[in-house]
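Checklist before submission:
- one chain only
- standard amino acids only
- sequence pasted in full

Submission:
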Amino acid sequence: GLVRIVASCEAGSGLISAGRAVFIRKETDLRVSVVPDREEYAPGGVARLKFSVTDEAGAPVVSSIGFSAVDESVLRLAEPARNPISEFFCAGSGKADPASSLPGFSVADAIGIADGVLMQRAAEAALAAFKSRDAWSLEYDSIEAGARKALETNNAFFTRDAGSMQRFIELHSIKSAAEFDAVLASSPSADKPPRCDPWGQAYGIAIGYYPGYYYDFGDCIIKSPGMDELVATADDCSYYFTYFVSKNGWPIPVPPPGPGPMPVPSPSAPGPDGGAEVRVREHFPETLYFEPFLVTGPDGTAEAEIPLADSITTWRIEGLASSMGGCAGAVRGGIRVFQPFFIRVDLPPVLTQGDRFTLPVAVFNYLSETQEVAIEIERGDWFEVLGESSKRVQVPAQTSAGSGFDIRVLSAGPRSIRVDARGSGVADAVRVSTRARPNGLCVPFTASGVIEGPSSCEVRLPDLAMPGGTDAQVRICAHPAAQAIEGLDSLIRLPYG
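Returned file contents:
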């Protein structure tokens, strides 16, 4: 637990004291693991997770587990800071903060050791509760372990460099690999990301850039052959990310599914032929699943079945476990949802009647051959396609390409658009939703009260109310405080505040 050490001394001006909190860890943490039944899932499938909880000795423990599954791209925007769960509950956030300092005293003065070597050993002994048991152990005593460590180092170098290149591309709104090299050559040395990997091989860069009405959309793949400098070997690295360039101050949407290292996709069976019906992907939540109370059996295991959404992403699994004896543990895992051929349609979340905009459509082809893709937008009564409603684009293997449709909004209300893409034996379809607002003045009306039986509320619409512009929402709260909390939540919600 938390132990606070306080030292005091008498001075001419009075008593001087200082203290420090030290967390002493007992080896009673739970070991929690989560394993999905497959390495990769198709959109709309079902994932089965197996949780396992043991103590330090490896014995099963009956525990309660609470966990959630959240889109990885959302969490990357604001990674939460965290402490080990045992330290969080026992020590809180101030466990390592000194209460005050003693001017004129050094560490050597405090412990009475002047020799540097002895002082280091004394410091290690004093901080023994903070270090892991294997901090100085030699565990890499085999060729396999050494190779694994080398691969981890390779990936760390690559992720660092690729992240630097991503920030450079986003900062300069770069539209192609050629423009990247041109901007890189004219930039100051201090601002330049590396153009070659640590082993002297030039990074491979492929950039797709798709202009839009409210914002431009770009995607980028960065590749490295790795330490062996050979393509298509185990140490190859790929890094994929998307970025947006705002126009006229329009809010930038959340860019799924990156950024981050992108593993090479596993092969899959061919999809439907050019004329077959294809499943429409239309469910894209940020939080996929939440389970507050999953109890393990006497063997320390429990299973959960999660229906998957239609997003092409990795769902991050994070959970906490606690036992009747007061032990706690945390777990993190992932559910990867992927298909080798898919499209992404970036429809603005809010439109206004009369708007004219370009709907960007990106096509991703991670198959082994080039695809000649036909893209078609389903016509609707609320919008007009200005031009052709179908287009063709060639997408090379292991890369992406894009196109767009010019659209004019005709009527207001909750709306959706469907886009289909068909290649050689593969197809994908996406339906995305938006809200079209009338091009007029918003006149809100609010009524509240307490429901004690059958109730009614009369709302008078203005005589000049526009067709399709009327919307009503009813909210029922179990307690007056719930309404206040809901209002606070709305104040900090992005992008509208």
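Reviewer check: The CA atoms of residues 24 and 129 lie 6 Å apart.
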